Amino acid sequence: MMVNIVSPRLNLIELLADQLVQVEKDLNRRWIIFPEKRPGYYLRKVLALRLGKSYLPPSIFSLDEFIDFLYTEVLGFQKPLVEPVDAIAFLFELNVKKSGQTQQSSFLSLDEFFAFGQKLFRDLEELKAGQVQENYYTVLDSLSGEQLPEKTRTRLRRVSELYREFYARLEKENLSTRATRLEKVLVELKPEHLKQVDQIILGGFFLTSRAEAGLLKKLLGLGKTTLFLVEGPGLDAVLDQFDLSPDETRKIEKTGDEAAETEINFYLSPDTHGQILMLNQVLADRIPDPAWLDEKKVVVLPAMESLIPLHQQTLMALPDTGYNISLGYPLTRTPLYNFFDCLFNLIQTADEQGRLYAPYYLDFVLHPYTKNIYFPEPHRTAELTRILFHTLQETMNRKKGRLFWSLTDIMVDPDLRQKLDEHHQSAGLPKAPEFIKHLENIHHQTIVPFFEIKNIKDFAEKLIHLLDYLSTHSTARQHLFFGPYAQEFYQQFEHLKSSRLSRHSFQHLSSYFALFRKIISEARVSFPGTPLHGLQVLGFWETRCLNFEEVFILDMNDDIIPGRNKVDSLLPYALRKELKLPTHEETEKRYRYYLQVLLSAARRAHLFFVENSEKEKSRYLEELIWEKQKKRPAVTSQKPDLSSLVKSTTYRIDLNSVTPEPVEKSVEVLNILSQKEYTATQLDCYLKCPLKFYYAYVLKLSEKEELADTLEKAEIGSLVHQILYDYFLEYLGKNLPPSSDLVRLEKIIDFHFQKNFSEASTGGFYLMKKQIQKHLKDFLEDYQQEAVNLLLQNNLPTRIISLESKFKTDYRVGPNQFKLTGKIDRLEQRGEFICLLDYKTSSSEKSYRVKFDKLDPGNRQTWNQAIGSLQLPFYQLLAADHFHLNPAEIYSALILLGKNRLSLNIEYAPLLPVRRKNSSRQGQNRGVFPVGHEPAELKVYQEYFQQLAAVINCLLTEIIDPDKKFTPDGMLTGQCEKCPFADFCGQG
């Protein structure tokens, strides 16, 4: 036996190669064992370079591979390894077995058991590998379940019983586990089994399990085994584990320039993408040199989630031979996992009638894999499927309050079919029945099968079928890394399908989905590569026993290295310590050791970390920075400034608003404007911001509706308009009576809520209905009834002329003619006066007020600040043309329904003059017209109208003026904050 303590600055692989080439002819009679398999690639390459010819290589193993080799090839045992799901199945069956009888009700169901079955299997394996003796079983049983709920603990058999019976059952079934193979090798392996090997080399080990340490000690006792340990923190504990004293070892040091200290650089960033940005800056002057991209440079990813950003922002800029990825990426971070997760969330949240929660349904159908399923032949394109699902999204978003839909409801929805027919007519797309048939097929291929699952085998088969469907009927194969992702998912599903667990069933659908999530959470997709070319991209543990000239380590944060999670085990910390099983402390020691060895071996190291409100630098990084601070001379008695040691990056955010450029009017735009029908809303929009008018009414852009369980203000306003229209329709062409029909009002409100929100599932709609009922009753009693009676007292009957009527007129301004249109809520006649009323659910008149004292119709600069809205004078023009009246003689007012207290004062006429504060009738532009109004006030009213009419004429002329650009006037009037197009202008 020979034990060597190797300086970390020495290249262990080259050191071993130097020794092996001295026995070139007998290399195939040498065995080399490393903690993992990657060092073997490097060793074979170095040997090939040293020998310069073909050769019979030594047998090189990772420790797990070596144990399997001894078990199967040397000792001749042929018991296959049990899969984890099979192990859980055995444990479940053993837990429900008592005295030869199955008493299902007395023990945990599979739904309850599986949650910690994985933990139990891992713990049993650790107990086996830890060589726990039977005299510990009593304390094992008393403490092992102390972290479990009382109900679970009483229905779970004693761990010692499960421990004995589980491994006995595996023996009977002719199966093995990692721990039983190791145990068998320890017991059965004899020196005569190893006659065919001349030398065994053990390289780069640190702390191992008790049984693994026992095997290595057994090999060391053969007399032909050489152990190479790399010097680093905690190595004394390794010597103790192998029962070695320092006197039994020899040190191999590195001398001269090669022993120079590692140059370590630190980089701070606010997030992962900041790390990648800084990495790219460091690599910028290296990448152009092809010779630099070799296996002596490594990017280490302790957090595997950083792989995709690294690949997309760094590696894709390199040639294909310029890098090599060799690590396991968690399947839970893949788009394919997200696809299945969206599907299972959808099914889990279905109600008792099987209706699906609309937001989750939209999440699923708008997933990139779902919405890119090919439309059937002869079209065979994913574009039509995207059109289908975005149309469906638009349709469902408009059904406010309807949060649950059955699949049948979705397919027979008349609005969806109507919209699809419109696409057919306007764009020549397939007819609605073809879209609906395609939708039905997608439902039956993806959603429907998972509503009924017989057992775990049936579940696995349905998962495989769905993955097949995605692979062959969608664009998924074209997505980044879909191939390796899908292959690993296939393997997991096939294992599940053929497992012993497959014959079992769960009581609840959600348990199947939990099973999927548990299995996939343990799985990794490999990006296999060789270390023979290019910049290496490795996980942290893949760097063991390897030396690199330059090292780049990302995510040097404490929650990653060493991590804050305790050992996930049913065995409490005190028991694990007593049984000498690994704890989080051993994990921290392993991280510290291998990190220090990796850094010590490199000429240069670049350590990147994130620091923000949620993340802090690794404790090991803190130590490295402190060591560097101590070595740097301080100008004062204080320690060197940290900022001088750590390079940082921040995102420069320019908060200055960008002034958008005005948009010129092209020939095409002028043609649109000349043919356009103009509304009051459009004119108000143009007045406040011509550029917003351009986006909204020339380009016809609009905000996408979102599915919500409440109504927005505009939707509440539309609903109130519908109710009031139905109520006053009975009086159309008649005089309003002096009393209100509140019973009929309630019936109308019930009708509209039943029609529009019959399937609304939240209490918010019920409360809204009650609020609307109360408010409209107050409106009829406290305003309408009072107004009618007040007018009657003045011999002015109120007759309804029109309700919700749409008016159009060809309006001439000089040589130009414009098409004006608008829907007027209500026109009524009060004595000789025609009155135009517009309902507003707002409580304030501020947005509609006109400040005539600040308005100069001849000065364009005064219009924005003085005019709240041109809606009422615009409507007066429409009504006057229809009834052949002078528009200035039509009275117009707002009915402010949003006021908390409803009275006659909710009638607000912006064009009526406001008296001074010392007037006895202050604020007379409120109240019921024409009661209390004098002829002089009506004359002012007409003058005000003429001023606003002049503004309307100027705006219409300006809109079609080719020399007038669409300017961003909203920046001057404070319109940008709530503008949906603010991002377009750089104001968002």
Q: How would the blueprint of this fold be written?
A:
Elements: E1 2-6, H1 12-20, E2 30-34, H2 38-51, E3 59-62, H3 63-74, H4 84-95, E4 97-98, E5 101-102, H5 110-129, H6 137-143, H7 150-154, H8 159-172, H9 178-188, E6 199-203, H10 210-220, E7 225-230, H11 235-241, E8 249-252, E9 263-269, H12 272-283, E10 297-300, H13 307-313, E11 323-326, E12 328-330, H14 335-348, E13 356-357, H15 358-365, H16 383-398, E14 404-405, H17 407-412, H18 414-427, H19 432-446, H20 456-473, H21 482-498, H22 509-521, E15 524-526, E16 535-538, E17 550-553, H23 559-563, H24 573-579, H25 584-601, E18 604-610, H26 619-631, E19 646-648, H27 667-675, E20 677-678, H28 680-688, H29 690-698, H30 713-729, H31 742-757, H32 763-793, E21 798-813, E22 816-830, E23 833-840, H33 863-866, H34 871-883, E24 891-896, E25 907-908, H35 935-959, H36 970-973
Could you describe the 3D structure shown?
Helix content is 45%, strand content 13%. The chain is built from 36 helices and 25 strands. The chain is elongated, with a radius of gyration of 40 Å. The protein folds into 5 domains: 2-78 and 188-257, P-loop containing nucleotide triphosphate hydrolases (Rossmann fold); 84-175, no CATH class; 263-327 and 528-636, P-loop containing nucleotide triphosphate hydrolases (Rossmann fold, 3-Layer(aba) Sandwich); 333-526; 680-973, no CATH class. The two termini are 73 Å apart.
